[in-house]
Amino acid sequence: MLLKKKPNFIKILIYSIIISSLFSCQKTFDYSVYSAYVPVEYRATRLINLEKLTHKETDSTNNNKVCFALLSDSHSYFDDLEDAVLAINKDKDVELILLGGDITDGGMLDEYLIFRFIMEQSEVPYFSVIGNHDCLANGYTIYQEIYGTDDYVLVYKDCKFIFFNDIVWELNNREPDYFWLKEQLTNTNSEENLFVLAHIAPFSDSFSPLQRYAYTSLMDTNNVLLSIHGHHHQHYYGEYYNDSVMYMNIGSVDKRYYIKITVENKTYDMERVRF
Amino acid sequence: MKKAIYILMIIMTFQISLRAQNEEVKKRNWIIPAYLNLQYAGGVGNYIIGAGYTLNKSQSLRFAFQYGFTPKYKSKKNLHITSLKFSYLPTDIKIYKNISAMPSISAGVSRIFADGPGTFTRLPSYYPEGYYSPNAFRFHLSLGANFKYRFTNPRNIKALEFYIETTTNDLYMKYYINYRKVHLTNIFTMALGINIMFK
Question: Which chain A residue is nearest to residue B68, measuring alpha carbons?
Fold first, then answer.
């Protein structure tokens, strides 16, 4: 009896494996986690968000006030990121979400797609700067496929947000494009509030003294209201170089807060909102 | 990088031709693979070719060296992956005459050879020590079912095995742990393969 029972159990096991292989796999065949092929429906995500932002601007009643939420370094803290997005959805003042980079942990396609899936739940448009972790593996290619260029500018009401890719080591020890940054900073209307988002703060270890000087002097001479960064997972806010520029380190999303900034009359209010 | 892949391929073809020449020799040289493995998908490439070895007489313990290639049109960049896969096939159940079925469990490690500085086993010198852990290695786990057809009068090929596997890797397991909306059905994918068992 015992001998007869054993093969039955194994047969059931084999059948269940076949059935699970055939029917329960959502992605049937997987070639590699390193794949950089982005399905067409996920491309041009930034354009969709830009369209949402344009609608928001035309619908808005107060054109002198801008309120945005800041998040950073979500890596693979997916549950925390989703909780943050749901908390921001409840705050009806927030008009857009800006992310300080490191939206993935290893630059893998699946991480980008999970991040995108979570951010799709947001009622407001979102924009992110590229982080060092986002450039690992084939991440840089995937970022460009999903979101577009890594250096870009966003103008919303009287605020100008400059997203600057300052990654050095992960992009083959390259030089960030300071000439582009200078051009964007100088071609600015005097009424505009300038914000710069770059993942790595100039006081970080991957900046050489020359790169640090280039960045901080551009900030200082162009009246940047706030230089916003990620990378370090702790929050920081202050005049790091004792010049006219305020520097901020957002802090990682697993610390379970988001930064809410309200810009009005050339000044801003900052608030740390726990969720 | 590519050199290593070519060397591996040359060794594999050499081993197969070596086998063909030594048909008369009864005792198998340890370097000659026991089977040729062909696989489709399974997280280690799109098209995979491998050389397999059995570790015991009943062939329940095996390992295979695999090389997987994913072309540019499927993954935007050409991906070359080598892997080492250990399998355990605990039992052999006769289904019909010379056809039998075997469940299998496998564990493997793979290494990607990619262009650019994004994937590495050792960090470039400009990084501080220990800045990142190596990201070119992946660990795989699969459950499968093999169906074996034994030839009655074998000449060169003793048996053919068709297998189907459901497989996952360390990253997918990490996503499963870190995000409540990733379910078990999301982290398993399918692989199909053939083992050509030599005499």
Answer: A31
Report residue B175 as tokens: 């996503």
How far is A116 from B185, CA to CA, in rounded Å? Answer: 20
A49-274: CATH topology: Purple Acid Phosphatase; chain A, domain 2 (3.60.21)
Domain boundary assignment for chain A? 49-274
- Using CA atoms, how far residue A193 sits from A94, A130, B144, in Å, is 17, 22, 60
Segment A45-88, tens digit of pLDDT: 999 999 999 999 998 888 889 999 999 999 999 999 999 999 99
Mutate to test the interface with A, among B69, B171, B177 (most CBs of A within 10 A): B171
Alpha-helical runs (H) found in A91-221 = 109-119, 139-147, 178-186, 209-221
Q: Is A7 helix (H, G, I), strand (E, B) or coil?
A: helix
Question: How many CA atoms lie less than 13 Å away from B22 in the CB half-sphere?
Answer: 17
Residues 6+ apart with CB under 8 A from A51: none
Please identify which residue in the block is written with the tokens 């390193």.
A34
More confident residue, B117 or A29: A29
Distance CA A108, CA A35 (A): 8
Instruction: Tell me which residue has tokens 């997280």.
Output: B43
A50 alpha carbon, distance to own chain's centre: 15
Low-confidence residues of chain A: pLDDT under 70: 1-9, 12, 16, 19-26
Token digits of residue B88: 């355990």
**Domain ranges across chain B:** 1-30, 32-198
Q: pTM, whole model, 2 decimals?
A: 0.90
Chain A residues with beta carbon closer than 8 angstroms to that of B45: 31-32
- Considering only CB atoms, A25 lies closest to which of B91, B181, B188, namely B188
CA neighbor of A200 nearest in space, from A216, A179, A186, A180:
A216
CATH topology for B32-198? Answer: Porin (2.40.160)
What is the ipTM metric for this complex? 0.89
Q: What is the CA radius of gyration of chain A?
A: 22
Instruction: Please identify among residues 125-144 of chain B the ones whose CB lies closer than 8 Å to any CB of chain A.
Output: 126-128, 131-132, 135, 138, 143-144
Q: Where are the alpha helices (DSSP H) in chain A?
A: 2-23, 45-59, 78-90, 109-119, 139-147, 178-186, 209-221
Which residue did the predictor score with more confidence, B41 or A18? Answer: B41
Task: Give the separation between CA A68 and CA A122, rounded to whole angstroms.
Answer: 13
